[in-house]
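Q: What does the assembly look like in three dimensions?
Context provided by user:
Components: three
Sequences:
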Amino acid sequence: MNVKRIARDAVLTALALIIFIVELQIPPITPVPGVKLGLANVVTVAALFLFGPWDAGAILILRILLGAAFSSNPSALIYSLAGGALSFAALLLMQKIVNKRQIWAASAISAAFHNLGQIAAAVLITRTPALFAYLPVLTAAGIIAGLVTGSAAQLAVNRIKK
Amino acid sequence: MKTKALVIIIAVVLAISLAASAILYFGGERKTANIYVDGKLYRSIDLAAVTEAQTFTVETERGRNVIEVERGRIRVSEADCPDRVCMRSGWLSEGDIPIVCLPHGLVIRLSSGGEVDSVSR
Amino acid sequence: MRRSAAIIAVLIMLLTVSSCANSEKTAEFFAMDTYMSVKAYGGGDAVDEAEALVFELERKLSITDGLSEISAVNEAGSAQVSQETAELVASALGLCELSGGALDISVYPVTRAWGFTAGEYRVPQEAELEKLLRLVDYTKVKVSGDTVSLGEGMLIDLGAVAKGYAGDRVTELLRSHGVKSAIINLGGNVQCLGRKPDGSRWKIGVQDPAGSGYVGVIEAEDEAVITSGGYERFFVEDGKTYWHIIDPSDGRPADSGLISVTVVGKSGLACDGLSTALFVMGKEKAAGLWRENGGFEAAFVTENGDIIITEGLSGRFTTSGGRKVSEVIRRDEN
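A: Here is the predicted structure of the complete assembly.
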């Protein structure tokens, strides 16, 4: 295994983790559970388009696990995993159909699926299908957050490619 | 894929979601608050019949939520969960969007009183 | 372009017309010291008239409003009242008699001594109760023409029948406006008109006297479903609970082993008065009264949590939350 690759991914994981923890300190903008920008995903999205699915996937899963260990809310891990898995799957599919100038769009769709995954996990855990009522608002919030983080990832990819 | 097509898809999904959220948030008259713990009905309160504000505590092995009820509305006023999303949700008085406290498996949902049309008391 | 505009106009008109035909209208207000709601399907502004009617009745019948007709009777010992009030007093006296005095509209001096009128609760001394009980005797309340007169020092309170009577009047009013379907809740006294718009019977929850849910659900149409329970108004002193339903025979909160009585029947006035009377009488005497008279059905909750119903309710009373009916009272005693 390539040492340079390990070092690069480790640095990116650390970066994502720092962003994640810093964002946790910011009080939520809305009272809706699950709504946040998810700035750490800038790293995941950029890594996918720059280095491919294996590196991006590793960074994502490590960031989620370490993030849960560092945060004060370990029960949120299951929601992060469900959201992370679904959004990453969506992101991989989107990567197949978008070009290098449309990363922001892939990120928006992927973020919506992140929230879908979280709701599905919450419905299963609390056994309350009524929580699907959150789907529209979280889809909208996911798209907006995905556009913001996706645009940041787009800028990063554009710069690094040059 | 054409950028225009992507923009349209995302804009349409966003618009539908926002419209649906508005409907779900302001979904007309709801009279009964149902409090669920792990999907099981814990307590049902006819909010229209509340005459005096009252609070009570839902306690599970995972933690506690203090619930406050006034005529026509309900909220979580105190909680010892890590994120306190339930408290920040504020007063619930209409619509189909529930208050949730995921760490405690607690859900407060309004219904139009579905199972009964009125309560004799 | 013009055609599509026309189609849209027609659609809007259709929507407006169809929403009028079956429109639901609710009036919610605070009257007679309690929260009230009148919900009617069709009938336009009838619910607003219903609200005005309830306020009008409150002005006539209130015990706390010094200008009411009942206050005039209480102050002067005898007063001329409206025909409506005179008839209501006469009907209430009929219920007092039917219940053998378990319901007594002249128990008011005692209720007041306990503080249930003003909310300044206290436990009166034995001697005080004894003195006040001498003033309690509904047979000394006379109605002749439009004049209601009381015995010396007596006071009457129509609180036990006023909401039921108001429900009857509101139902009558809505019916005269062509309303076929309505549900009225006057401070927990439920009265329904017809069936639900979808043709099914109204489902009326019976409050759990020991909690916040329902003990069961009664299916009803064109009926009143009225509950009396100790939980409605009470206070606790030295660990003992005192509630607002006073037994006119000893002047103390009724201690009959029942904690809630629900009466179902055509007349709201009768159901209201009977729910109080049966609460005071206790299960055995209440069953006797039901067998002799009929015309109503009842559901009882005892202090042990047992649920007892009269046989007319079996089949349309469904218990909730895993409870069971522990006894069905039948007309023939076997």
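Follow-up: The CA atoms of residues 62 and 68 of chain C lie 6 Å apart.
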